[in-house]
Amino acid sequence: MxxxxxxxxxxxxxxxxxxxxxxxxxxxxxxKLLKVETTNxxxxxxxxxxxPCVVEYLGIPYAKPPVxxxxxxxxxxxxxxxxxxxxxxxxxxxxxxxxxxxYPGFFDDANRxxxxxxxxxxxxxxxxxxxxNIWSKATSRSNLAQKPVLVFFYGGNFTFGNTNxxxxxxxxxxxxxxxxxVTVNYRTNIFGFPGAxxxxxxxxxxxxxxxxxxVRDNIAAFxxxxxxxxxxxxxxxxxxxxxxxxxxxxxxxxxxxxxxxxYVYRLPLPDPS
Length: 273
Known about the structure:
The protein is an alpha/beta fold and about 270 residues long. It has one domain: 3-Layer(aba) Sandwich (Rossmann fold), CATH 3.40.50.1820. The protein is built from 8 helices and 10 strands. Strands 3-4-6-8-7-9-10 form a 7-stranded mixed β-sheet. Strand 7, helix 5 and strand 8 form a beta-alpha-beta unit. The longest helix has 19 residues.
């Protein structure tokens, strides 16, 4: 007589068989990357849905929530040592809504695509938004913490933008190339660039700096090499990268920088005369 296995037992065996099969198809085991020790404490990642050899970590806080007395001030390093399940994107920073565009010849889905690109596709906003996301593929170099690292800053004219958008989903790049991909939420609009007397300036760019400092201090746990950090940005994010090369010449942290298509002086400078 055969014993009758419960549905729960069969399901458990099936799930573990799938996980084991996926792991054996990877160049290296993903188990080392699923739980990593950081200055935040233990962070638990998960296998990406679209790439079973890539471990993703979403919504990792890198700064204290910029609320209350910390509103309109430079970011402060995150303090916390509890286990963090990095399973979902953090909140978007408060931002403007991108206006509806009605150009002649626009195809039907154009504004929907722009909505996603401009971070206005019904994602939740909060001032508690200073988080980053990491994708790392299990390879021999990840075990040795030798992967180059790409940190990306979104654009949006410094008035809108976020990381929770299909355009900046780092899993595919991390899966195709042997590198660690990081995307960063930073403050925009009046919260990131208040421009008022007596307040710190360029808070959004200061957020970016603190995020890269966090990456430098922790990326080895995710398989990355802290001496091979490159920053990149799109539009206003590219402008941020260009400013970085001026602002931090004595302590750049990074080893490379690239912009697309933004840079500081995008238009001809006015004639001094």
